[in-house]
């Protein structure tokens, strides 16, 4: 959480910082701030405020900031409330700093080094600034080394020293920092999105290494002062991928991009009609040598795992668990050398998932991860990685990351079924062909989006809502329900429809709309009976049903017909429809769809 940018170079620093912060705002939007060097006062000038980057922009607008160097921050509050004082950057003496992470021992440090008098905020971050200033005697590297030797917790620190103009220093533990040197100068950021406007080359700053940026050079040293060569990676994300491209919100743009994103994710991984991970360096033995699978992930990524679980159980008849990464370590999971752990994460930085991967590896498991951001922490921690090619996902609510994660899971399931003799080659090819139809089928749902917009008006005023279905439909609705609640603030619960009458049906009234999904032939009649049960208790029904299963469905239901696919693949069109439902409810309510309250895109605190 928290977005960070640092830039020293030839462009207008104020504009580079503010534009980058707008792109990074998905990491937290409680407050924003920048610090830019000022040659006249020989000290960085700090501009910061509670609120959004647009508020910060208004504050800085009239300022003529003639400088070539500055740092910036968007905050997701942890220690200390949302206020101007608690906004970053923090300045103590010669040190101006922004921080992402949590300094766990900030109280002890304050007491041990008697820093209290120099602090004006309630943040742990300002303690790091004060400590650095205490240790600073003119040599930034020495002060940084001494400071981090005292810090407990996670941190990405980006620092200006007032007597080292034109230089930006950084060091990190766990919390990510990527950096680059390009034509316009040197820059670093908490994530790639902020850099890809300038370059497609970047490197991940290794933990506990001091990074020094100058406009014409980058110097990376380990804690013994030994110089290290940055390991550059390339990314194919383009600038226009990170813009809204005419859509009012990134969420809509990203929903619309899904056919292409799925196509990009699967195209290079199909050879002769069969799944092929050789270009990813993932050996077949990974899938034959395991006797159980454990998926670990959070939120939407975990929901992708639940769909995979249903497929693995029904097609492969294998033992498979799905764990919320935050619960994984504490649940004494059954993990050994024969367990294949699959971690799923868009950002590759979610700390709970990262810690779960480390834990599983210690227990001897092999770890394969499904990740969107190249070179991210989870990717680096894993034995193997399958990257989703979703491109940058900026809206806080995840959409195209989810469906590209699912696409990879379909390939894994096909691969395992083939390797284990569950599918013949022809069965596998036919399964993969169905996956290749997904982009076109998604496109058909997207074309009918106005119909879904009309359905959204049926739930707009609801305070509470249920989403019901069985089997795979239940898995789909768990994600549909998460999407709706996070962007529309409607309390929505996904429930296995057969379970409803064991308690929650008591909550159904005429003010509780029910969204139902019916996409699995074998479950159709039971699901329709369950829908009748809530209808007869007064609920309005919004139904997403596979076209060929719609038959004589009750005309009193508000119905959207989902284009037909094999039942296992109905997740794809249904998910797009449910994403659109959530999107329209939120935008019609006038909410900031891309930045729902209290949330942040990348969750780097446990
Ligand atoms: C919901 C959402 C979150 C993320 C979760 C994991 O729309 O985006 O639930 O899915 O925070 O994030 P990643 O995939 O980055 O690990």
Description of the molecule:
This protein is an alpha/beta fold and 606 residues long. The chain has three domains: 3-235, Glutamine Phosphoribosylpyrophosphate, subunit 1, domain 1; 244-436, Glucose-6-phosphate isomerase like protein, domain 1 (Rossmann fold, 3-Layer(aba) Sandwich), CATH 3.40.50.10490; 440-590, Rossmann fold (3-Layer(aba) Sandwich). It is 35% helix and 24% strand. Strands 3-2-4-1-10-9-11-15 form an eight-stranded antiparallel sheet, covered by helices on one side. Strands 5-6-7-8-12-13-14 form a seven-stranded antiparallel sheet. Helix 4 packs across helix 5 (140-150), helix 13 (400-419) packs antiparallel against helix 14 (425-447) and helix 16 packs parallel to helix 18. The model has no long low-confidence stretch (mean pLDDT 95). The structure holds fructose -6-phosphate.
**Helix/strand-derived class?**
alpha/beta
Kindly give the count of domains. Answer: 3
Broad shape: globular
- Rg for CA atoms: 25 Å
> What is the helical fraction, as a range of percent?
25-40%
What gap, in angstroms, lies between the N and C termini?
A: 11 Å
How can the largest sheet be summarized? 8 strands, antiparallel
CATH class of the largest domain: Alpha Beta
Low-confidence stretches: none
Strand coverage percent: 15-25%
Q: Which hetero ligands occur in this complex?
A: fructose -6-phosphate
CATH topology of the largest domain: Glutamine Phosphoribosylpyrophosphate, subunit 1, domain 1
How many helices in DSSP terms? 18
Mean pLDDT: 95
Strand order in space, largest sheet: 3-2-4-1-10-9-11-15
Return the CATH architecture of the largest domain.
Answer: 4-Layer Sandwich
The CATH superfamily label of the largest domain reads: Aminohydrolase, N-terminal nucleophile (Ntn) domain
Question: What's the count of strands?
Answer: 27
